[in-house]
Every structure is written in structure tokens, then in C-alpha cells.
């Protein structure tokens, strides 16, 4: 029985394509890595996110008086989320000034916690996790004031907050620390 070259080609394509999808589905490298290299901050802030209103509150570059700088950036992957966060210490008087500025423009305010805690409150909105923490904790301690500058629900009826974005700052005056954050999902 003679086999059609078309059927052989189709079968080969199905095997190659199927193995690609299986390998992709089970590969540990299929998820983006989180970038923590602070030398890439300016590139991420000013090039990758340059046309984005969600990072306009971030400093254009790492301030010269900043100490203990940490960043966490996860590039957008397929239909997944993306986040960008920079944590830094600054002089107490500068932190107090920033707290006053952002308190006045915040649409939502929380004390400690994480995005799951915040969205589950009455009229709550998604915020962020503590990606730049020195430990594996996902929540901000109660010493942090989380100030949401904007949150945009792009879900549909019955799937509230299925897609959207939010951004803001988390400030800890006792540690003289500010975290700028932005999330999109």
C-alpha cells in the first residue's frame, strides 16, 4: 500500500507540533524569570515601560541618596501578568514628604497585607505582593502604608478584576523606605 506524501508530511507536522506543546506545557523555563539586577532599572523604567502611565510615579533613575535598593521585574508573558517594583531607603525627611504627597493623591489606602487581602475588603482593589522583600514573605508588614494611585478593572461582568492594572507606593516611615509598584494582569 502506497502512502501519500501529504499524509506523511501531515503526520510529521502533528508529531513535531504536539511535542512542542507538551514540552512547553511541562517546561520549567516556560515562565519568565524575575529580574532583580538593579543596574537594569533605568532600562526597564525608561525603555521597556516608557510609554506607560503606570510607572510615571517611579523615579526616572535611582536617586543618588537611595540605599538598600532592590528591584523585581517580571516581563509580560503570554496572557499572564507583569509587575515592576523598586524598594529603596531614603532620608527620613524625604520619606515624610513623599508620604504626604502620595497620601493626598491616593484613591485607596491600606495598612500592611497584600493584593489578596486588599481586594477582599469592602470596595477593595488589587494591589501587589511584597516582591522586593528580604524574605519569602508575600505580605507587607503593618508598618507599611499601601497607597493605590490608580486601579483599573478591565474584567467583564461576572469576572470582576479578571484583567486590569493597579499602581502606587508602599511606605514604611519607621524604616525610612518607599516601594514604587505597578501590576498588570
* Main beta sheet strand tally, sense and closure: 6 strands, antiparallel
Distance between the termini: 54 Å
- Total E-strand runs: 6
Mean pLDDT: 84
The value of Rg in angstroms is: 21 Å
Helix-strand string: HHEEHEHEEE
Question: Class by helix and strand content?
Answer: alpha+beta
Reading side by side through the largest sheet, how are the strands ordered? 1-2-6-5-4-3
- How much of the sequence lies in strands comes to 25-35%
Q: What share of the residues lie within helices?
A: 25-40%
Overall geometry: globular
Query: Count the helices. How many?
Result: 4
Indicate the low-confidence ranges by residue numbers. Answer: 7-30
Characteristic terms for this protein:
4 helices; six-stranded antiparallel beta sheet; 185 residues; alpha+beta; 6 strands
Structural notes for this entry:
A six-stranded antiparallel sheet has the order 1-2-6-5-4-3. Strand 1 (67-74) and strand 2 form a beta hairpin. The protein is of the alpha+beta class and 185 residues long. It has helices spanning 5-26, 41-48, 92-105, 115-119; strands at residues 67-74, 82-89, 108-113, 140-153, 164-172, 177-184.
